[in-house]
Amino acid sequence: xxxxxxxxxxxxxxxxxxxxxxxxxxxxxxxxxxxxxxxxxxxxxxxxxxxxxxxxxxxxxxxxxxxxxxxxxxxxxxxxxxxxxxxxxxxxxxxxxxxxxxxxxxxxxxxxxxxxxxxxxxxxxxxxxxxxxxxxxxxxxxxxxxxxxxxxxxxxxxxxxxxxxxxxxxxxxxxxxxxxxxxxxxxxxxxxxxxxxxxxxxxxxxxxxxx
Length: 211
Fold this sequence. Notes:
The chain is an alpha/beta fold. The chain contains eight helices and five strands, in the order βαβααβααβααβα. The protein has helices at 17-30, 45-55, 64-88, 99-109, 114-125, 140-151, 163-179, 193-203, and strands at 6-10, 35-39, 92-96, 132-137, 184-188. Strands 2-3-1-4-5 form a five-stranded parallel β-sheet, with helices on both faces.
């Protein structure tokens, strides 16, 4: 049995993270590797309830500090009730977003310091980090077209923020990947889903997974 691995997909809106997470799980299954696909915020009943608070468009919304606290609370439940148990059982965990999203959205784009976001993560989730973070990067016009095709006019609270905010998010992700190259794999997400999937499989060669 292969060593359990924790993989996170990161990127802005419309990067294709959810599609690639599902494709990766299928590819691992074909190689005899059991995995669980999950998401943030969410993944457990408690975290899904917090997701509704964070992303729903009713009310005034949350300031970046409150957002960071809510994300950290959801992540704490997710880690304790789903991620760590799955890894302990030998399953790979494929997560659509993890702490680096908080670092990019509430941190780089929202104005909180990286140190504060990581401090919340140390308290809530004991500092757990993925074995590999797959950062899918696409040009802004591609991301906008994909998001429009997926959501139409029904975007969530965070996805519906202006282009300047999402540009700051993209810049923050790029900075994190540059600062932590040992944990990040930057994936060109522009192209057909199957082509992007091949790029992701190539990045998993470090774990002995055949392309």
